[in-house]
Amino acid sequence: MRILKYLFLLMLLSLVALSVFVATQKGEFNIERSLVINSPRAAAFNYVNDYRNWEDFSSWIVEDPEMKMVYPQKTIGKGGSYSWEGKEESGDMQTIFVKENDSIAQKMDYDGTASEAFWKFKDTIGGTKVTWKISGKMSFTMKIYSAINGGAEKIIGRICEKSLTNLDKKLDYEINTYAIKVNGLVRKLETYYLKQIFTSKISDVTKNTKIIFPKIIEFCTQNNIELNGKPFVIYHTYDLEKGLTKLSFCVPIKQQIHTSEGSDILSGKLESFEAIKTTLTGDYSHTKKALDKTTQYLNANRIATDSKFSHLEVYTIGKTEVKNPSKWVTEIYFPTRPKPSYTKSLVDETKVATPKIEEEIPSEF
To answer: Which of 116, 187, 209, 231 sits at a 20 to 30 Å CA gap from 88?
Structure first.
């Protein structure tokens, strides 16, 4: 009995000693890891900037199949957030600062340990250098776990390293897997739509679609306006030298309506037109390649474009339908002018064939 008493006393003293040791340990930590990933800077930034993508690369989520994710309405940019609850730990994260294609600042609570995270994206040879810094103060529980498992540098550093590696692998496939097909000459049928008109940097169009389209769709919901297909963008002008475009963000609707005077959301009607159609399957960063391939097709077939607008993009399958960028589908239409009539001898000499016109069904808009 006395031996048991001594053993109990020894365990109690050991526990007290451990508690004192842990309590006196430095609780602050400052961890930094970097990795050059094989993806463009904008693509890497946009992927990290949306918390709905984190379950694909965050090591603490990837390695816990039972972890449950909770997403609010806003997951992108400043004010975006998410939370998670796993078998052994839970936490939440919120974005507090964003500099487009450059850096992201966040605050995080991981099982009672409050920390701040900072991401930096920099162009470099071979892709994008992504740096992830995490600093904060450990909770008492985290101090114990850290003391037993080799310290915060090892534990958190390993989380950062695995997450960055996962990010590289995921982006390398999702961003760089794409296909472009020039479908040929088609006829687009008329459609009614609601729109907002802007002058924008070409590089900002994708970012702006995430803001403008939900706004127009919400307007339709509030006013019981029936939608009629996928959102699209009409590029009225497209100046590559200045990097600027005048464009309309459009949402198709069943019937024509008239918006009130002074409204920033306007109604419009897209008349039926002939166009060369190109389908891009993949991330939006490959849009320029699709435009270039379409231009080559137009030149090779001596097809003149119509000056009514530059081109039109329909977001047939996007992030609201599927999370993976490699599966997004964008349809691009260049309006064309009727092809001039050639004499028989000229046609025979140049081997120019008139492309077949296919009529597209209205539901695609």
So the answer is: 116
Model pTM above 0.85 = no
* CA–CA separation, 193 and 312 (whole Å): 14
Cβ-Cβ contacts under 8 Å for 220 (sequence gap 6 or more): 194, 226, 227, 251, 253
Contacts of 168 (CB under 8 A, 6+ apart): 35, 37, 38, 39
pLDDT tens track for 72-97: 989 999 999 999 988 777 889 999 99
Residue 147 in this model has a pLDDT that exceeds 60 = no
Residue in the structure block whose two tokens are 């294609």: 101
DSSP structure class, residue 8: H
pLDDT of residue 96: 97
What are the distances in angstroms from CA 294 to CA 92, 180, 276? 45, 9, 8
Residue 45: both structure tokens together: 């930034």
- 45, 77 in Cβ contact below 8 A? no
- pLDDT band of residue 255 (cuts 50, 70, 90) is very high
HSE-up of residue 294 (Cα within 13 Å, Cβ side): 28
**Alpha-carbon 159 to chain mean position:** 23
Strand partners, 330: 280, 315
Q: What is the pLDDT of residues 50-65, one digit of tens each?
A: 999 999 999 888 888 8
Q: Which of 284, 274, 280 is nearest to 360 (CA)?
A: 274
Kindly give the interhelix angle for 41-48 and 152-176, rounded to the nearest 10 degrees: 120
